[in-house]
Automatic annotation (TrEMBL):
Native organism: Aerophobetes bacterium
Keywords, comma-separated and alphabetical: Aminopeptidase, Hydrolase, Metal-binding, Protease
Gene Ontology molecular functions: aminopeptidase activity; metal ion binding
SUPFAM superfamilies associated with the record: Creatinase/aminopeptidase (SSF55920), Creatinase/prolidase N-terminal domain (SSF53092)
Gene3D superfamilies: Creatinase/methionine aminopeptidase superfamily (3.90.230.10), Creatinase/prolidase N-terminal domain (3.40.350.10)
Protein name: X-Pro aminopeptidase
A Pfam match: Peptidase_M24
Residues covered by the Creatinase N-terminal domain: 22-110
Top-level taxon in the UniProt lineage: Bacteria
Entry similarity comment: Belongs to the peptidase M24B family.
Domain Peptidase M24, residue spans: 149-353
PROSITE patterns for the chain: PROLINE_PEPTIDASE (PS00491)
Length: 365
């Protein structure tokens, strides 16, 4: 399958989820890249049941025509607000829908902007511009083969970075120094960026799930928590490992590690297409509850991973949806206690009909 065919398939998947008489205004650069394969910082994609057009300014017109999988058209004004206020917006809508009954729908993030636009143009029909949840997010939740290969490449590079980071840890190194070493190594190996600021926590600092590296120095016997991710081929990776540096965990931290590992295994044992997402976190929490530790698990079990490090689906006990084949999600239970420390164990997996494929299977816990 050609690259253009992959992107055309994605647009067709999106069109299958929207109503016949709806057209969508899509502005998020990651959504546009997902649907067209064209990377930009500013642009607008209009998608209806039988048509898709990318509106770009002068910076991207030539490149869009040469590289984009769909039609492109010049957009001299940078924002729809200006077009709407000047009265040109209606002309663009008329041109795009070509006399049909299609109404354009914007994302939830547009809600306040849409209200302001309608107030400015009181004579415009209300159905011209409505607001609904972004349908692209659910389409992006199920990956195609091209995406899975990119995600695998990102995970493989992350494993190299993790192994390098562990190899340079020595007594006296600071969390900030370790984070910088990790970033430099990964970028030298081909990472386009980090998928998030690395969480490198020594000792009791692991008790803070979204900790930022500080000047704390590594000591013998410290617990080490490494939550890391990189971007490769436009796709994110995400994993977490914990261990004790040159020593052994305290009895309390060893309990945290053992229970977290069992909770992770319990959740993974349920993974396959068709299983309720809520059951995954419920199973992990039931393990923690047996040890009276559930209250120390303070976040969701996981999330989707793709062009963004946090995507749909949200993997928690409130999500009533089911897993679908080729969803890529994290499983990351954790236990945290201030002044003691924290343990989080995280893998990124691809959901299959019969189970899952773990990108970090070879990376021991």
């Amino acid at each position: 399958m050609t690259l253009k065919a992959y992107y055309q398939n994605r647009i067709e998947k999106l069109c299958a989820t929207i109503n016949q008489n709806e057209g969508w205004i899509i502005e998020h650069p990651q959504d546009i890249f997902y649907l067209t394969g064209f990377a930009l910082s500013k642009g607008t994609l209009l998608v209806a049941a039988k048509r898709a057009v990318l509106l770009v300014d002068g910076r991207y017109q030539s490149a869009a025509k040469a590289m984009c999988s769909i039609d492109s058209a010049p957009l001299e004004e940078e924002t729809f607000e200006r077009l709407f206020s000047s009265g040109q917006f209606k002309n663009i809508v008329t041109w795009f829908v070509d006399g049909s009954q299609t109404s354009l729908i914007a994302m939830e993030a547009w809600e306040k902007r849409v209200d302001i636009l309608h107030k400015k143009r009181k004579n415009e029909p209300k159905k011209l511009l409505g607001v609904k949840k972004n349908p692209v997010l659910n389409v992006r939740a199920v990956k195609d083969d091209l995406e899975i290969e990119a995600l695998k490449a990102s995970a493989e590079l992350l494993m190299q970075g993790y192994k390098h980071l562990v190899s340079i840890l020595q007594e006296g190194i600071t969390e900030k120094e370790a984070a910088l070493e990790f970033e430099i190594f990964c970028k030298k190996q081909g990472a386009e960026a980090l998928s998030f600021d690395p969480i490198i926590a020594f000792g009791e600092k692991g008790a803070y799930p979204h900790y930022h590296p500080q000047d704390k120095r590594l000591k013998k016997g410290d617990a080490v928590l490494l939550d890391l991710g990189v971007m490769k081929q436009g796709y994110a990776s995400d994993m977490t490992r914990c261990f004790c540096f040159d020593g052994e965990y305290s009895a309390r931290m060893q309990l945290f590690f053992d229970v977290t590992k069992k909770a992770k295994e319990a959740a993974l044992s349920l993974v396959r297409a068709g299983v309720s997402i809520a059951k995954l976190e419920q199973s992990a929490r039931s393990v923690m509850k047996e040890h009276s530790l559930e209250a120390l698990f303070t976040h969701s079990l996981g999330h989707g991973v793709g062009l963004d490090v946090h995507e749909m689906p949200v993997v928690n006990r409130l999500n009533t949806e089911v897993l679908k084949e080729n969803m890529v999600i994290t499983i990351e239970p954790g236990l945290y206690q201030p002044s003691v420390g924290g343990i989080r164990l995280e893998d990124t997996i691809v959901v299959t009909k019969e189970g899952y494929v773990n990108f970090f299977e070879t990376l021991s816990l």
